[in-house]
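Protocol step 4 of 6: structure prediction from sequence.
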Amino acid sequence: MNRVPTPATRRWVLGLTGGIASGKSTVAALFARLGIPVIDLDQVARDVVAPGSPLLAEIFRRFGESLRQSDGTLDRRALRARVFADEARRRELEALLHPSIRARTDELLATADGPYQIVVHPLLAENGARDRYDRVLLVDCDPARQRERLAARDDADPALVEAMLAAQATRAQRLAVADDVIVNDAGLDGLQAQVAALHRRYLALAQSANAQAQ
């Protein structure tokens, strides 16, 4: 990621990743409560396909006008079902979206405040994006629990759940790129304690990096 540092501060950026339905959003929200700017690539992906955008028009052209909802927005659930059933189409969509997502993320990082910044990057391991970040935090979750959460959250049929999980990196691959791991198996109190401890560590690392850059 081409970060744009301020003159006096070297931006220290944490990549936060994890499998689908692992609890990334919950962990990110806990860091946000501590005053850390969070850029969620899922939200960025929504922003770059806002109604009227050239990128959204291209998605409709390539993947079908049936994905256009009555208010002009993208039917993300229908698109997801379509691309996860066809790997070639999924890769086509990723190639279309990723350059715009990355450019918008760089813009947001350039204006972010705080002692360090977090980018929630769901496909960090899949995209080989480890070197974009100063450190990587993995939210780890048992696959059985992921399946339960996916089924409850998205009301997805079992075949789609399995396709979504199969399209992602394995648990071992995510662990291999992680510097730190939060195990999401002890409820909210357990998550809060882990986040608080890591926050203290990241403050020190960011402060050290800033001092060396001056």
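Step 5 (inspection) to follow. The radius of gyration is 18 Å.
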